[in-house]
Amino acid sequence: MTMTIKKFWIVAFLVALGCAQTPEKPPEVTKAQKFRNMHPEERHIWMPPGEAELEKRRRNQKWLDQVAADLERLFMGYADILGDEIILENLLRGTEPQLQQLEARLDESQAQHEQRVKEMNQAVQEMEGAIGEMDSDLATLQKQQAARKVTRDDYRLAILLFRNGQYRKSIAAFKRILGKKHAPSLRDNILFGLASNFYKLKQYGQALGYLNSIIRNHPKGDKWLVSHAISGLIYNFQGQYNKAVSILETALKHRPNPDLLKIINRLLSLAKGGAVDASS
Description:
This protein is mainly alpha-helical and 280 residues long. Helices cover 79% and strands 0% of the residues.
C-alpha cells in the first residue's frame, strides 16, 4: 500500500513538472523570408507604391502636362501662320497652270475670230457662238475647281474647331480637306491637324499613325521635327521610354529651334529617367 502511494506521488510530480514547462517558440519569420519561401506562382502580389514613388509620378505627370501645353501653343503658332497668305499661295499654286492654259486657248480663239472677221464677214456669228461656248466651259470648269479645291476658310474652320475643343468635328473638317485637291506642301499640315486632334482625344494610336506618316513622307516639311516631339510625348505617356528616347534623339540631330529644343530636352530627360526606373 505504501509502495502504491509512492508511485502515485511520483507520477503526479512528473505530470505537474511537464505542465509547468513552456514549449520553446520557433524563431519569428520576417515578411521577406516568407516571400522567399513561397512558391513562385504565389509571389505575384501587388505592392502599392510608397509616398516617395507617388510623389515622383505626380512630378513627372506635371512635367508632361506642361510639355503638352507648350507643344499645343507651338502648334497654334504654326496654324496662325498657315491660316494667312502662305495657305492661299499654296492652294492657288496647283490650279493656276490650268487656268492659264484655258486663258491661252481663249486668247487664241479670240485672235482667230478677229482674223476671220476681217476675211469672212459671214463667219462672225459662228465664231462668236464658239467663243460663247468656251466662256461657258471655262465658267463651268472654274466652278468645279472651286468645289474640289481647298479654300482658306476650309482650313480655318478646322483650326477653329480644334481651338474650341470640338475635336471630332475638327477631325471631320481636316478629313474633308484631305479628300479635296490641295497643294502637296499643305498635306503635312493637314496630317498634323488630324494627329493633334486624336492626341487631345487620347487616341494615341491614331495620333501616332498620322505623325509617323509625316516623319516618313515629309522630311522637308515644317511639321517634321514637332512630329518627333509629340511622338516622344505620347511614348512617355505610354511608358515606352526607349522609343521616346530614340525618336527624340533623332530630332536633336536636326537642330530644332530654341523653343522646340527646350521641349525635346525636357521630354528626353523624362524618358531617360523612366527607362532607368523600368529597368531597375
